[in-house]
User: Fold this.
Amino acid sequence: MTTVGHLINGEMRTDAARTQDVFNPATGKATKQVALASAETVEEAIAAAQAAFPEWRNTPVGKRAAVMFRFKALLEQNADKICQMIGEEHGKISHDAAGELQRGIENVEYACGVAELLKGEHSKNVGPNIDSWSEFQPLGVVTGITPFNFPAMVPLWMYPMAIACGNTFILKPSERDPSSTLFIAQLLQEAGLPKGVMNVVNGDKEAVDVLLTDVRVKAVSFVGSTPIAEYIYSTANANGKRCQALGGAKNHAIVMPDADMDNAVNQLLGAAFGSSGERCMALSVAVAVGDQAADALVAKMSAAMQSLKVGAATDSSNDFGPVITRQHQQKVVGYIDSSEKDGATIVVDGRNPQVAGYEEGFFVGATLIDGVTPSMVSYQEEIFGPVLQIVRVNTMDEAMQLINDHEYGNGTCIFTRDGEAARYFSDNIQVGMVGINVPLPVPVSYHSFGGWKRSLFGDLHAYGPDSVRFYTKRKTITQRWPSSGVREGVSFSFPS
Ligand code: NAD
Assistant:
């Protein structure tokens, strides 16, 4: 069985002191193993990144950008292969994988413009013969720790900009679907990156803990579940590192009585069940305002769900694939069971989907649950599966209060035809990314991505302009070259 290894100092390595199975979630079979890096292996990667930093930092910014241009071309040339690799280990259908990759490539495009983004600020004659400017210098060795659900896109949120800014990088991808992530890093190497600038260590907590505590690592970007995000943030901070840690979500859509219901249902279908609901921006709760809207939503949604196709990634006519592991399948089913036990109504039940030829796969069918209330554990926690919960309320304020009271604040959306209501919603809702008749308001690459509340620990969001600030530190220089013949006295007062 193939072992997925590491990329350290430009070399592919297999440090197989410990390994873990990688599954094809559609067949339920282990197809590969992934090497789990020991502390020594991670330290080697840090040493390689540290050694590569001085030269890379001093490489002209145009040359750093040129590598990103070549990388983008290689990603496009290899898109089909990458999507196939994602399908084999994550299970998402090729059209969905292509969307993820495209959003990742857009972050590489943004990094191609790094020269413009690093130009800094300049002021002439801030005092007699004195000029002052601010420049943005790279931090050194920085690291990214990423989740299973976007094995191509989320790492591409991080390292293209970090590297373009002059840092060197160590990526610790998800151990559950590592192949596409490692392959993409090899493409970056092929694009002409010097050895040691980009390193990948596969592994688990043992590898992560070295990255969090080693003094040579200056900053940590993390994306994953909230309990781990909180651990990463507090540990990185305690070790003096800059950190941004993006966590989990429970994204609500408000469906107003005046909404175009057919449009809302169509949008909700993709946003709730696409990628089996394993997206941090998935809409997992629809809050219907008024019973009339709720009844119409449930009737139209349950009818539309009859035509949804769950199946293997190899059939592009499928709408979505399996969930990532057997344990996760059981967890999602457990949340549906607990909603039912707590008194909610299972309108469409996906607990036993029949997928011919894939009986051992980790499938959960699309599930619709009505009559969900805030006291239910299944409402309070992130399910991360193809499950849409309906909560019924009487007013828009009640709907907004629910969202504002929830632990998470990643994304949200309102379906309405009323501009005033939409404006009030976007102005007052306590959530980081807001859609108005847009179900998945994932910001484009030249804006930044991040939630509020316990969906993000840290100050700066991922990618976009915030990432330039995250991966650099500001230095402000004040300079005077006295003209000959001009003599100035000593001053003991504060410069003004
Ligand atoms: P996860 O938290 O289990 O794992 C994320 C990363 O952390 C992996 O690389 C994993 O190896 C590592 N890790 C896991 N346990 C660890 C530990 N105890 N100590 C140190 N490192 C550890 O998340 P996941 O299941 O891979 O991904 C799904 C989660 O990610 C969901 O909660 C989803 O909402 C979230 N997510 C959030 C965003 C966002 O932008 N906010 C984007 C994608 C996914």
